[in-house]
Design a protein that fits this description.
alpha+beta
């Protein structure tokens, strides 16, 4: 073992508490950096864990109003057929909507299993190059099997519900309360981390021929580029799979990673201050070694070996902490942000962490270099070199000042994030999501051919079943009220029409979102009536023999649209003319104004919206006055009686929708708060260590003052006061930096400003209080020293 390393081990072993504190401080910051880097790198840069991932594309067909504008049903079927037959794709696979519904009675409930299942094409797994860890993946032979139906489960389901039994494949099970409510045979178990599409943990083969479904994913054929495919299918949205999987909030990880980098710098500076104090306290030892012939290079190598040992230990401990911390962060973050990818700390994250450790080692190496080269042996032995003492004092104060300023900046951002967290949880959504659920009824299916009823008769039968489901839902015990609508808040619908407030040939029509609603829709969702009247039963006119109901002459508007209409006069009573004009163009008379409700995510400006009455709408919204776990199974049973064979899918709690809509804001705020609050113990330790070192340096001076009759309380006040002055100066610089950082952070947070007086005051109170508490112990110790004993030493 090299002599320098033996010296470093022996030296650090003399102060094990200091060594452990230093290693843990740096290791915690290194682990946070490695975990955030692993997520950031996995989402944006690391190659996808799929076969020829750079050739994979995501295909999305237009939906909602966009589909109606761009394609007819016949054109859409032709587009699906062309996508399934084009030679531009070497492989393709469809993925259907989740099969699972929520909250069912029984021992094995969906809520307990936390199932998110999807139907996939048999080519899905081979196209991705994904293989099962145990058993096999789904194949084309599984398409015709319905009982027992083959499924593939995730590693988590296998571990949590089957005890990680490797002999599980081939076992027949049954899961109550799901659309998979039939005998199932487990074909295979996927490896840990495989969850694609995002959040899916159960896979079943789709039913029906491949030509019935548009491919969701495909691999480009050799020699084909994505621009050729886009030119061939302009009505479809086709993008590289990597671009599709990058979540909207992924760039926020870059900012949070920067915050963890600043935290790591604070930790390194904290360690530098501690080792500086320790090395400066060994001035006599350094002076003696220099006087006995040791070169400055040899001494520098000895003390640099200590820094290397600290950095290596911190890297080892930090890396051991990084993998479980990454797993925790992936669980905390919403599935929409992690995109269902296997995110974990790998060799790339280790290399990143090692580089940070080397950078920290370089910082630690400057400490012995400064002390060794700036002092003569005689001055170090006597501790009488004033210039060296002044230099050490300046260095110590500079390190402490930087640490406090950086801590203040991080705490300021943490306070903004906490403020954002509170605001997003208490934001006025414009409706009441408490106890509200929603589910969608299927669209009418028209069958043509000999012996089939007319299209009108089929639609009438569909309308009758929709009415029956809504009425039976209202009669279920535990349902306070129910209504139907074309959509509901937070769903982000695209339905819109063009309206002209007045018959002015030169005016441009305005594009307005439109929501059709049944009676009691407003009361069920708790929407707020601002002005005018609500809709009454008399506003609903129906023509049962028509394909659609006749448009009534009245409508409500939201506050955003009302502000636009107010420029033309009183809003109530205005007539809105549908454009383009024609024989079927409608005219709506405004009879009331509703408060704005959040369309998709809080913080986005609500779109101009009109509410028009209509019955027989696809979404059923119900407000419950009992536990949903007991009420929803009864709703499903009542709906099945009113509509035999109804595939009731997508039952959602609106409270869950609210949580999903605010998940990005909450995750960013939580990460920033957790990262920034790590600075508090570092700041407190740094202040206490710096004051402890300063008082040791001034022991003789304090002893003389006490011997001459100085009041101990004055000694304490002088030490604490000096600490608070230094802290205040650092806080001023840190607050200014925090506001600058906050300007960049505000785009990732909700409802906060970069310069916030309340936040500034909170940061000052917390850090000044921390400095005061950290200064009390060494100040009290200094005021209690025995003058005679101190002077003899």
């Amino acid at each position: 073992m090299p002599s320098h390393l033996r010296f470093a081990i022996r030296s650090l072993a003399q102060q094990p508490a200091l060594f452990v504190a230093v290693v843990l401080a740096i290791a915690s910051a290194l682990a946070a950096n490695a975990a955030l880097f692993a997520i950031y790198d996995g989402l944006l840069f690391k190659p996808l864990p799929f076969k020829q991932a750079d050739r994979l594309v995501h295909i999305e067909l237009p939906t909602g109003a966009q589909a109606l504008l761009q394609t007819t049903p016949v054109q859409r079927r032709e587009l699906v057929q062309q996508l399934n037959e084009t030679p531009l794709f070497a492989e393709r696979a469809s993925v259907l909507a989740p099969l699972v519904t929520l909250f069912e009675e029984g021992a094995n409930t969906t809520s307990e299993w936390n199932l998110h299942a999807a139907q996939v094409a048999p080519d899905f797994f081979p196209m991705l190059g994904a293989n099962a860890m145990y058993g096999r993946v789904l194949t084309a032979d599984d398409e015709g099997r319905s009982s027992p139906r083959p499924i593939v489960i995730s590693y988590q389901i296998w571990r949590d519900h089957f005890g990680a039994d490797p002999s599980l494949p081939g076992t027949t099970i049954r899961i109550d309360g799901t659309m998979l409510n039939r005998p199932l045979v487990i074909a295979g178990v996927m490896p840990e981390g495989f969850s694609f599409p995002a959040g899916v943990n159960v896979w079943a083969v789709r039913s029906g021929p491949a030509s019935s479904y548009a491919p969701a994913y495909a691999r480009l054929a050799p020699g084909v580029n994505i621009e050729q495919v886009r030119a061939m299918f302009p009505a479809a949205v086709i993008m590289p799979l990597r671009d599709h999987l990058i979540p909207d909030g992924a760039d926020a990880f870059g900012f949070v990673l920067g915050a963890t980098g600043l935290l790591l710098l604070v930790a390194w500076v904290q360690v530098a201050a501690l080792l500086f104090s320790r090395t400066a306290g060994r001035a006599r030892e350094i002076g003696t070694q220099l006087a006995l012939g040791a070169s400055q290079r040899q001494l520098f190598a000895q003390y640099a070996a200590e820094g290397a040992l600290v950095a290596a230990a911190a890297l080892a401990v930090g890396w051991l902490m990084a993998r479980p911390l990454t797993a925790v962060l992936v669980r905390v973050l919403p599935a929409e942000m992690t995109a269902g990818q296997a995110l974990f700390a790998d060799w790339r994250a280790f290399a990143f962490t090692a580089i940070l450790s080397v950078a920290g080692l370089a910082l630690l190496s400057l400490i012995p270099l400064q002390i060794v080269r700036r002092s003569s042996p005689l001055a170090l032995m006597r501790r009488a070199d004033d210039r060296a003492g002044i230099g050490r004092s300046r260095t110590r104060i500079a390190l402490l000042g930087f640490q406090l300023a950086a801590s203040a900046a991080l705490l300021y951002v943490a306070a903004l994030a906490a403020h954002s967290f509170v605001r997003v949880r208490s934001v006025d959504l414009g409706f009441d999501a408490t106890g509200a659920i929603a589910f969608r009824l299927p669209n009418p299916t028209i069958s043509t051919g000999p012996g089939q009823p007319s299209a009108r008769a089929q639609v009438n039968a569909w309308v009758s079943r929709m009415k029956g489901v809504l009425e039976s839902t209202r009669e279920v015990p535990g349902v306070a009220m129910a209504a139907s609508g074309s959509t509901y808040p937070l769903r982000g619908d695209l339905s819109s029409i063009n309206l002209l407030p007045a018959l002015d040939a030169g005016a441009d029509p305005m594009t307005v979102r439109v929501t059709y609603l049944s009676p009691r829709y407003i009361e069920t969702l708790g929407l707020r009536l601002v002005e005018g009247r609500a809709l009454t039963d008399a506003d609903y006119t129906e023509t049962p023999t028509s394909l659609v109901n006749q448009a009534p002459p009245v409508a409500l508007v939201n506050e955003t649209l009302a502000r636009d209409l107010a420029r033309l006069g009183p809003v109530i009573g205005q007539r809105l003319h549908e454009r383009p004009a024609g024989a079927r163009a409608r005219i709506f008379e405004v009879v009331g104004i509703l408060g704005d409700a959040v369309d998709s995510v809080p913080g986005m400006k609500p779109a101009p919206r009109m509410f028009a009455p209509r019955s027989n709408l696809p979404y059923v919204i119900a407000r419950l006055d009992r536990d949903p776990v007991s009420v929803i199974p009864r709703i499903r049973q009542a709906a099945a009686e009113a509509w035999p064979g109804l595939p009731l899918r997508g039952v959602v709690m609106l409270e869950d929708e609210v949580r999903r809509a605010t998940a990005d804001y909450r995750a960013r705020s939580l990460l920033l708060v957790l990262i920034s609050l790590l600075c508090l113990p570092l700041a407190a330790t740094g202040i206490a260590g710096a004051i402890n070192y300063a008082t040791r340096q001034k022991t003789r001076e304090i002893a003389v003052r006490l011997a001459l009759g100085a009041d101990p309380s004055a000694i304490r006040g002088r030490i604490v006061g000096g600490t608070l002055v230094t802290t205040a100066v650092a806080l001023a610089a840190g607050t200014a930096a925090g506001m600058f950082i906050g300007q960049a952070a505000s785009r990732y947070l909700f409802g906060v400003r970069a310069a916030d007086l309340t936040t500034i005051a909170a940061v000052w109170i917390v850090l000044m209080g921390t400095a005061w508490l950290a200064a009390l112990v060494p100040a009290a110790r200094a005021s209690r020293i025995e003058p005679a004993a101190a002077l003899r030493e």
